[in-house]
Amino acid sequence: MDIFSGLLTGFIFVVSVVYLYIRSRHYYWKDHGIPYAPDPHLFYGHVQGHSTTKHGAVINQELYRHFKQRGVPYGGVSLFIMPSLIVVDPELVKNVLVKDFNVFHDRGVYSNPKHDPFTGNLFGLKGTPWRILRQKLTPTFTSGRMKEMFGTIWQVALKLENFMENMEQTEIEMKDVLGRFTTDVIGTCAFGIECNTLEYPDSNFRKYGNKAFELDIVTQTKFFFAASYPRLARALRVKIIKGDVTEFFMSIVKETVDYREKHDVKRNDFMNLLLQIKNKGKLNDQSTAVGKGEVGLTTSELAAQVFIFFLGGFETSSTTMNFCLYELAKNPDIQERLRDEINQAIDENGGAVTYDMVMNITYLDQVINETLRMYPPVETLTRKASKVYVIPGTKDLIPEGTIVQIPAYAIHHDSDHYPDPERFDPDRFSPEEVKKRHPYVFIPFGEGPRICIGLRFGVMQTKVGLISLLRKFRFSPTQNTPSKIEFDPKSFTLSPIMGNYLKVEKAKK
Fold first, then answer.
1. What's the whole-model pTM score?
2. Going by C-beta distance under 8 Å and a sequence separation of 6 or more, which residues neighbour residue 504?
């Protein structure tokens, strides 16, 4: 009996200590006099169990509105048991992303290249390794490089046109079609492989690409645990990327690298540029390598960059095109105006679709920007404080290691910045209207030194896909088209939970 009492007492003591520790984490901001969101869940914090039914964009928008209604520029929340700060004020957004980048230079994403090789990508790397790799890769994404890849992308777009023309049904689920199109584009530009996903939708590229974005509770828990306790996670060899996903893409990369180096294959694609950096530490047309004494890339490092380029390129561009067609179908006047401008630009270019023509259709830019405003692919940007930070104009401190969240979706849907924010209106992005707004209330690709490096490629791919479709086809809603899109809570990015069924007809020129 005494042994049992001792064990029970010990158990109660341990549970009490754990409970008090977790509670102290949840109430960190309250204890330090900083506005905070109430009622955190004991284990989930403000992520809560809603994560299985609500997308992060919706949860963070609710938190953003809570602090906005209180009239405060920022507020404290709990990511599971990790104190985090949500930014409301655009000026503080600017400080975090740009002005004080020396403090907020890391995303707070888990990176362990030794045991989880694909986490050693540009998106997740920190500090000096990130800076060196960014300098190496930046020359691969210039407008000149994009122009070289344009022909390859346009050839895939022509296959998309042909695919659509051969469809027998008039109601088409466009989310799947566009995902297959961008998979084919990224497959050929990143790997130099003809995936033919449009023709064969069950390809492994599509299968494992989709699997990489699945956000189940186990993956989500590992993600936040590793971000909260990176040293412990590395010691435990925690892996964020699913094993079969890593195995598939690593195998493809190694085969491609070996074949190209053995047969001296040259192509106008991303893989060709990475191979130059891998072997020489620089591109062929650069005079010197980046960084004194810097070697190139290992095969694993190269694979990690190809992997993140593939994921970032196929999913974000396909969902942007999908959301764009959804809004154009609901707004036929905007669709007709855009189609007219596309056809006019092609006619003025002698009937040819070229890189310069595609990148200079002003209204297409406005339509895409309005789509990105309403549906930013990454709904929340994160930065991690590398040291204690005093919030400008206050005495409030952000402790070292704290994750700062910038809820792009919530900011983009703030009626103070965008009146009637649920209305699709590309004229918001006319030059006159843009000048009226704070520059940091439109951040679909982030901003500052860690702005998305593949921005140019993503926009080009999106434009090419939309042009190939809109110049020949008209899209309209059907009875299966939802009146309002619900986001899939199991997806990292903004993705509709249901398919996007649209009526597709040949457009009369």
1. 0.91
2. 164, 167, 170, 171, 172, 473, 474, 475
